[in-house]
Write the structure tokens for this entry.
Amino acid sequence: MRSCAPSRRCCGRAAGRPGGRLIVVASTLGTLGHLDPRLHPRFDGATLDQVEYAVESWRSAVHVGTAEEAGWPRWLNVPSKVAQVAAVRAVAAERRERDLAEGTLVAAVCPGMVDTATSRPWFSDYSQAQSPAEAARAVLDLVFGEPVDPVLYGELVRFGKALPWHGGTPPTEQDRLLTP
Ligand SMILES: NC(=O)c1ccc[n+]([C@@H]2O[C@H](COP(=O)([O-])OP(=O)(O)OC[C@H]3O[C@@H](n4cnc5c(N)ncnc54)[C@H](OP(=O)(O)O)[C@@H]3O)[C@@H](O)[C@H]2O)c1
């Protein structure tokens, strides 16, 4: 699965057609609670420009060595996933009424745990992991679902359910792996 962060030009193309789908493959780790609370205001209720600014300030903090004192975790997956979901929420907030009237869906999706080269180094228990083909099923159900469910519009969706945006707690296992 490829994933990206929404941008204005790209989103306009993907979901601009009535009945279109803009689905960003994010992660359960993309809910706000997975980040240090000091960082929440940067993403909560943010516009697309504000999300871009938050990511840019994270990048700058990494470069100048102040990221950890500002609360950014070492494992880049969490801020990048929160930023993806925040960006989807920002785009969705601008388009919700028109999109729902036209049957267009903008959402983020978590495929659940999938056994891939990307995920292997980061988790200790793979007993519940799906194959990529198994994981595609719920994602495609979301893509092809008709009519668009307003409860899922603009949300992070996992196995057909919207995850609470403020949920989650910061993971520690992966940051420990990155501690020299
Ligand atoms: N695996 C999990 O448990 C899990 C759980 C939740 C969310 N996710 C998310 O699902 C997404 C896919 O992860 P995955 O586990 O399926 O990884 P994967 O099997 O390793 O696939 C990664 C994909 O990203 C592409 N890619 C990597 N760098 C790229 C770049 N710079 N430009 C364009 N494409 C690039 C790769 O293309 P090539 O094959 O051409 O290199 C590959 O198709 C990620 O966003 C991940 O965070 C995964």
